[in-house]
Structure formats: C-alpha cells, structure tokens
Amino acid sequence: MESKRQQKHAKLLQKELGEIFQKEAKPLVGKAMVTVTRVFVSPDLSVAKVYLSFLLADTNSIYELIQEHKKEIRHHLARRIGKSVRIIPELAFFPDESAAYAQHMDQIISDLDIPPAPEEEDEEEDY
C-alpha cells in the first residue's frame, strides 16, 4: 500500500509527464496522443513506474521511441519539478493494457450464447 507521500508524488509526476507528452515531446510522438494513466512510485521516491496508453498511433513504435528518449523526458521533468523535489525519479515506462483487456472481455461476453431465462409462473396459486 502506498503512503500519502508516494501518492502525492505520483500524482505530481502524472500531471507533469502528461503535460510533457502534450507539449515538449510533441516532436517525438507526432500526432499520437499519449496518456499517462497511472504512476507508481517506490517508497524512496527514486523510481517511478509510468503506465501509458496511446491513441492514433502504432503502440509498439511509439513505445519504443519513448524508451529510446527516456533520458530526455526525465530532463524535461527535472526542469519542471526540480525545485520542489529532492530526487528526480528514474522513469520506467510500461504500456497500459487495461483498455485492450476491457475490449477483449467485452468481446468475450458479447460472444457468449446465453439462453433466455424461462418465464416464471405466478408463485401464488389459488387453492
């Protein structure tokens, strides 16, 4: 369970990284929309696991580009939050598969062949 401090730090990172992907990293990602869905911070605040979802782009190619330019993204983050935190965390990016998983589960549920329930007769029978 995350402490309040970790949650507060994670929320700050999520907000700032979202703005970085919208503004500074726009040449990197092009027309793709990158959303920071979740951030988990280690107890010592030195490592942040960042989960990303992508729209309007090939997920694998954008993910690889972000992995290659991880240091630049961390540098942008340092310029934004460097005065308010002691340690700029190492960033570990992961693709967020929750939307794809939800779509997959929705497809499975819609493909189920569930027969309609039989109509029940009135339970109160006249004697």
Describe it for me?
By secondary structure, this protein is an alpha+beta fold. The protein has one domain (4-110): K homology (KH) domain (GMP Synthetase, Chain A, domain 3). Helices cover 46% and strands 19% of the residues. The chain has helices at residues 4-22, 26-29, 59-68, 70-81, 98-111, and strands at residues 33-41, 47-55, 90-95. Strands 1-2-3 form a 3-stranded mixed β-sheet. A hairpin with a 5-residue loop joins strand 1 and strand 2. The protein starts with a helix and ends in a 16-residue tail after the last helix. Monomer. Binds 30S ribosomal subunits, but not 50S ribosomal subunits or 70S ribosomes. Keywords: Cytoplasm, Ribosome biogenesis. GO terms for molecular function: ribosomal small subunit binding. InterPro entries: KH_dom-like_a/b, RbfA, RbfA_dom_sf. Belongs to the RbfA family.
Topology of this structure?
Blueprint: H1 4-22, H2 26-29, E1 33-41, E2 47-55, H3 59-68, H4 70-81, E3 90-95, H5 98-111
Parallel strand pairs: 2-3
Antiparallel strand pairs: 1-2
Helix pairs in contact: 1-4
